[in-house]
Write a structure and sequence with these properties.
By secondary structure, the protein is an alpha/beta fold. Helices cover 45% and strands 21% of the residues. Strands 7, 8, 9, 10, 11, 12, 13 and 15 form an eight-stranded mixed β-sheet that branches. Strands 3-2-1-4-5-6-14 form a seven-stranded parallel β-sheet, sandwiched between helices. The radius of gyration is 20 Å and the shape is globular. It starts with 10 loop residues before the first strand and ends with a strand.
Length: 396
C-alpha cells in the first residue's frame, strides 16, 4: 500500500533517536497526542530497540501497533538522506549534536525537509548556519534548532512579552530562570562537550558573523549582563551564558515587532546569596574540569547517556521563567511556567514544534530560523493547550 501524500513524502513526522531517554518520552507524547491523520514513524540505528519501543507504545495506544520503523545511523549519510527524503519534518534527539548532528541537518537542507532538534550547543548552531542555511533557503527547508527547554520558553516567552509592549519604540527584556530539575546523561554530555570546546565555539561564532547579513536601521542585542540583586524577582540574578540569549537576539533581528533597538539579558534567579556564590563556584569548577579531556571523560562516565530521573522525580520538577519588559513608558511582568523542563516538557515542546511545522498555517520562512520566527503564535497556542503557561503577571 502506497502511503505517500501529494508531496511524495511517506511521513509527516519522523522521530530520530526515538529509543533514547528523551526520544522515548517524545515518542510517548506523540503516541498520545498526534492527530489520527498524522503519519509518523520511529527512527534509530537499532531495529530491535525500535521494535521494543513500538511494543511499549502499543501496550498503551493500540493504534501504534503498526507504527512504521526507519533504520538510520547518524554516521551513515546515505541512510540519513533516505530518512530525510521520506519525511516532511524530522525531529532528532541524537546528541551531542556537534558530534552527531550535522549530517542530518545537511540531509534535510538538501531534500527540503523541515528539521527540529533539542540542541543547546552554540557551536553546532553556528556551524550549521554557515554550512547549510543557504542550501536550506534554496530548497525551502526550515532548520529550527533548540526546540526544547533550550530555548522555547525563553524565545517564545520574550516573543509573548514583546507583544504586550508598545510598537515602534526601543524595548528591553530581562529573563530570570528558576527550576528544581535534574539533567539526563545526554544533556550532561552535551553541556560538558560545549564547555570543553571554548576555542572552537568562538571560531564558529566569528565565522557566522562573517556570513550573516548586517541588520540595517535596527539593533538587536543580548549582552551577558552582570550579577546583581533583582528587586523585580526578589532573587539574585546570575548571568547565564547559554544559547538562549542568542536565539532571542536572532528572533529580534528577524522580527520588526521587537522595535528599532532591542536588548535582552538572560539570568538564573537564585534566592539567597550563599546559593548564588556556591552555584557560581560549582559551575566554574565544572568548566575548568571540562577543559581537561581525561577529567571530562571521567565526568561523562559517571552519568551515562540514555539515563535520567524516574517518573516520580520528574513529577516533582518544575520551571519558571519570569520576564520584565520595558518600553514606550510601559512596564510588563510576564511568566512562562510548567513541569519537568529537561524531559517531560522538553519532549512536549519538541513534539509540538514538529507537529506545528507539519500541520499549522505558518509564515513563509526557510533556512535556519528560530521557533519565534518559524512558528510564533501557532506554537504559543499549541503549548498553552498542552499545559505550558504563558501569562501576564502585572503591567504598569
Amino acid at each position: 500500500m502506497d502511503t505517500r501524500d501529494g508531496t511524495g513524502r511517506a511521513y509527516d513526522v519522523v522521530l530520530f533517536g526515538a529509543t533514547g531517554f528523551v526520544g522515548e518520552l517524545t515518542a510517548r507524547y506523540l503516541a498520545a497526542h498526534a492527530p489520527d491523520t498524522c503519519r509518523w514513524a520511529l527512527a534509530g540505528r537499532s531495529r530491535e530497540k525500535l521494535e521494543a519501543l513500538r511494543d511499549r507504545l502499543a501496550a498503551e495506544h493500540p493504534r501504534c501497533a503498526d507504527l512504521p520503523l526507519v533504520t538510520a545511523d547518524a554516521s551513515d549519510a546515505g541512510s540519513l538522506r533516505e530518512l530525510a527524503a521520506s519525511a516532511r519534518v524530522v525531529a532528532t534527539t541524537v546528541g551531542p549534536y556537534v558530534w552527531y548532528g550535522e549530517p542530518l541537518v545537511a540531509a534535510c537542507a538538501e531534500t527540503g525537509t523541515d528539521y527540529v532538534d533539542l540542541t543547546g550547543e552554540p557551536e553546532f548552531v553556528d556551524l550549521t548556519y554557515v554550512r547549510h542555511d543557504a542550501r536550506a533557503r534554496e530548497t525551502g527547508a526550515r532548520i529550527v534548532h533548540a526546540c526544547g527547554f533550550d530555548s522555547v520558553p525563553h524565545d517564545l516567552g520574550v516573543y509573548f512579552t514583546v507583544a504586550q509592549l508598545p510598537e515602534g519604540v526601543p524595548l528591553t527584556v530581562d529573563g530570570f530562570v528558576r527550576s528544581n530539575a535534574f539533567f539526563s546523561g545526554g544533556t550532561f554530555a552535551s553541556a560538558l562537550t560545549a564547555m570543553g570546546r571554548g576555542p572552537q565555539m568562538l571560531r564558529a561564532a566569528r565565522e557566522r558573523r562573517l556570513h550573516e547579513p548586517r541588520l540595517m536601521g535596527r539593533r538587536a542585542r543580548a549582552p551577558l549582563g552582570a550579577p546583581r540583586f533583582s528587586r523585580e524577582t526578589g532573587a539574585w540574578a546570575l548571568p547565564l551564558p547559554t544559547l538562549d540569549a542568542g536565539v532571542v537576539a536572532r528572533s529580534a533581528a528577524a522580527l520588526p515587532r521587537y522595535g528599532p533597538d532591542f536588548r535582552y539579558r538572560h539570568y538564573a534567579a537564585v534566592r539567597t546569596l550563599p546559593m548564588a556564590v556556591g552555584g557560581a563556584a560549582a559551575v566554574g569548577a565544572l568548566v575548568a574540569l571540562a577543559q581537561v579531556p581525561p577529567a571530562r571523560r571521567w565526568l561523562m562516565d559517571r552519568y551515562e547517556a540514555g539515563q535520567g530521573p524516574d517518573e516520580a522525580r520528574r513529577a516533582r520538577s518544575w520551571f519558571s521563567v519570569r520576564f520584565v519588559g520595558e518600553g514606550g513608558g510601559r512596564r510588563v511582568f510576564t511568566e512562562v511556567s510548567g513541569g519537568d523542563p529537561g524531559y517531560d516538557e522538553t519532549a512536549k515542546m519538541l513534539a509540538e514544534s514538529a507537529l506545528s511545522l507539519a500541520f499549522d498555517a505558518l509564515p513563509p520562512t526557510a533556512g535556519q530560523v528560530t521557533t519565534a520566527v518559524a512558528m510564533g503564535d501557532a506554537l504559543l497556542e499549541r503549548l498553552g493547550r498542552a499545559g505550558i503557561r504563558f501569562q501576564v503577571a502585572d503591567a504598569r
